[in-house]
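WARN retry 2 of 3 for item q-0093 after timeout on previous attempt; input resubmitted unchanged.
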Amino acid sequence: MKILSYNEFLTSTCNTSPGELHFSNLTEAEKTEKIENSIRGDVHLIWKKLILPINNLLESCPYCKNKTTRIHKKTISFPGFETQVHLFKCKCGWWGIGEYGTTKNINFLHSDSRNKIIAGILKSYEIDSNKIPVNTLNEVLAKDNSNLFKIHPTKLEEIVQHVFSSYYNCEVIHCGKSHDGGIDLMLINSEKPTLIQVKRRTKPDHIESVSTVRDLLGAMFINDTQKGMIVSTANRFSRPSNKIANFLIERGKVEVFELVDFKKFCEMLTLVNTYKMKESWEKLIEDI
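OK item q-0093 returned
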């Protein structure tokens, strides 16, 4: 499974006077050369077919070739100056902002046009890559949480970090390494942190065994804390696991010992995702 993710954005500008890019007497090669010579800034391959008006480019996604949707439009007017801003977005995640304006001189006999494009650059990832941005994974999981079984184990730790920091409204430190002593995350909401162990299971019918509980208890003892959590993509925790957890809480041996299975974590993930994350283009629109 491949995922397209927003990576960065580029800006290209083209300053023209009326008729400067009039192509009636030019060959296709001459048109292309004239267009490219008129563009300044970071020029990406997808701009090589730039023609005016800008919307001709933005209405078609350069990645998946599907038709885009205009989701924002505004006009900025001053004496002798007017700029129109259009934002187009594709279902695959690509977006493009077209900003084009006209400035007239004092006698209004001549005008200059300034056309600017700001657009996202997408990058393709495999679902199990450890390079996928967390925000992108979060969007993928919001649409289909069964992808939790497929993502890279380290990325699962980062997703849990992201979800818990929002859900519990506190700092969550990622400390998972090859010699982490069974601790992947630390939830900082009091003087002594809550130690978190994250287990990615690849099958939805997996049952988390009592050995995982014992491993965390050992880590808690070594780190002198009475707070621990296990997050697993397993369907459920075994009966001995739940029995030990309940026993420890009832006897006051620990302050917190929570077992979070696939269903419970998905509920937390859904709740966190109800708070809309800011799109990459929103800040750009605000600044125009």
